[in-house]
Design a protein that fits this description.
The chain has 376 residues and is an alpha+beta fold. The chain contains 7 helices and 17 strands. A 6-stranded mixed beta sheet has the order 1-12-13-14-15-4, covered by helices on one side.
Length: 376
C-alpha cells in the first residue's frame, strides 16, 4: 500500500531504515503465550525519544530519553510481554550489549552502561499459566536473533497480544518520502479498544489509506457472531481458571488465568524510525505525532487500562536542510509519515496474527473470521 507521501520501501518493514535490526523470542504452549521483541540500533546508537499516553504504562529507563537529560543515543529498545514482570527482559539485552562494549561510556575500554528503554504489554495468563512471563534470558535470546528480516504476526512481544477480543500481534511498515528520507514503524497491537469497525467489519486503519474493500454483510454478521462466541468462551475459561487460582489456590506453579471479572489491562506499543538527522526534541515530537496513527487504527485509545507508548529512533544518516523553511517542511513530512506507517503497521499486525485456542481463552484471527476476503 502506497502512502500519500511516498512509496513503500523494499521490505516494507522497520529495518528499511538502514542499520536497524529486529529480533523476536517467542514462547507458546504448556502454559506460555508471550515473548519479547528487541529493536537493535546501529553500533553507536540512535537518537531516541518516547511519548507515553496510556493511563496504565509499564516502562523502564524512559526518563533517560527526556531531551533535557544526559544520554544522547541508545543502542536498543525492548518491547515485551509479561506486564511489569516482563521488563526483566531488558536486563538480558543490557548484559548482551555490555559484552559487545556497546553503551554509555563511563571510563576506560569496556566500561559502558547500556541504557535500554523498555515497555511491556499485558498478556499474563493468556497461555494458561499466570507465571509464564519473559525474563532476562528471553531478552538475551531476542537481541541475539536480531536481523534485517522482520517476522510479523503472533511472534515476540505480540505472541499473547489481543485487540478487542481479536488476536493481536506484531506488524511493521515503511515509506520512502519524495525527499529521500525513510520512515518506518513496528507495532505490537494489544488494545482494550477495537481494531475493527463493528458497523462494516473493515479494519479502522484502512480508512483514509486508499480504496477500502467492505466485507459482504452476511460475512460480517457471521464474523461478529463468531467473535462474540469466542469472547464468551474466553470468559468461561477464565472464570473456571480463576476459581482454581483464587484464595491462594493457584498451586505451587502458580498456574491459572486472571480471575474472572478482572478489567482488561492492555497496551499498544510502537517504535517509529527514520534515517533523518533529527534533534532529540524533533524525535520526541515524532513519537507524539505517531500516536495519531494509533488513534486512527484503534478506537478508543489511551484509556486508563492502556499503556500506549511510542518510541522514536533517528539514525541520522541523512541531514535535515539548514534553511528554516526547508527544515520545517522536511520534518513536517516525517512527522506525518510516522502516523501513516503506525496505522498501516497496525493493520498488518492484525492481518498477520494467528488464531489462538488454549486454556487462557479463544482469540480468533481477523483473517480467519473474514477468510473470504483473503481468497485468491
Amino acid at each position: 500500500m502506497d502512502s500519500p507521501l511516498g512509496h513503500s520501501q523494499p521490505t516494507d518493514s522497520l529495518t528499511d531504515v538502514r542499520g536497524l535490526r529486529v529480533g523476536h523470542a517467542t514462547r507458546s504452549g504448556e502454559g506460555w503465550l508471550t515473548g519479547t521483541t528487541v529493536v537493535l540500533a546501529p553500533e553507536g546508537g540512535a537518537v531516541t525519544a518516547v511519548d507515553v499516553r496510556g493511563g496504565g504504562p509499564g516502562t523502564r529507563d524512559t526518563d533517560a530519553l527526556d531531551p533535557r537529560n544526559l544520554v544522547q543515543r541508545v543502542e536498543a529498545v525492548v518491547l515485551t510481554g509479561g506486564s511489569a514482570y516482563g521488563l526483566e527482559a531488558a536486563s538480558g539485552v543490557m548484559a548482551w550489549l555490555e559484552e559487545q562494549g556497546r553503551g554509555f561510556p563511563v571510563g576506560g575500554p569496556g566500561r559502558v552502561v547500556p541504557v535500554v528503554p523498555a515497555a511491556c504489554v499485558f498478556d499474563l495468563g493468556r497461555g494458561g499459566d499466570w507465571r509464564a512471563r519473559p525474563d532476562a534470558a528471553l531478552g538475551r535470546e531476542a537481541v541475539a536473533r536480531a536481523s534485517t528480516e522482520v517476522v510479523q504476526g503472533s511472534v515476540g512481544a505480540g505472541t499473547g497480544a489481543v485487540a478487542g477480543g481479536l488476536k493481536g500481534g506484531v506488524g511493521t511498515a515503511s515509506v520512502r518520502l519524495s525527499s529521500g528520507y525513510t520512515v518506518s514503524a513496528l507495532v505490537v497491537v494489544n488494545a482494550v479498544g477495537a481494531v475493527v469497525d463493528p458497523a462494516t467489519g473493515v479494519l479502522y486503519g484502512r480508512y483514509g489509506a486508499g480504496p477500502v474493500t467492505y466485507p459482504p454483510q452476511e460475512l460480517h454478521t457471521r464474523a461478529q457472531a463468531r467473535l462474540a462466541e469466542a469472547r464468551a468462551e474466553t470468559d468461561r475459561r477464565q472464570a473456571t481458571e480463576g476459581e482454581g487460582a483464587g484464595a491462594g489456590g493457584a498451586g505451587a506453579e502458580g498456574a491459572g488465568a486472571p480471575p474472572f471479572g478482572e478489567p482488561p489491562l492492555n497496551t499498544t506499543l510502537a517504535v517509529v524510525a527514520t534515517d533523518a538527522e533529527l534533534t532529540r526534541a524533533q524525535a520526541q515530537k515524532l513519537a507524539g505525532t505517531a500516536h495519531d496513527g494509533l488513534a486512527r487504527a484503534v478506537r478508543p485509545v489511551h484509556l486508563l487500562h492502556d499503556g500506549d507508548t511510542v518510541f522514536t529512533l533517528a539514525t541520522g544518516d541523512k541531514p535535515v536542510p539548514e534553511g528554516v523553511l526547508e527544515s520545517l517542511m522536511a520534518v513536517n513530512a516525517i512527522l506525518a509519515a510516522g502516523a501513516d506507517t503506525v496505522a498501516r503497521a497496525i493493520v498488518k499486525a492484525v492481518e498477520a496474527a494467528d488464531t489462538v485456542d488454549g486454556p487462557g481463552g479463544v482469540f480468533p484471527a481477523y483473517r480467519d473470521l473474514y477468510r473470504d476476503l483473503y481468497q485468491d
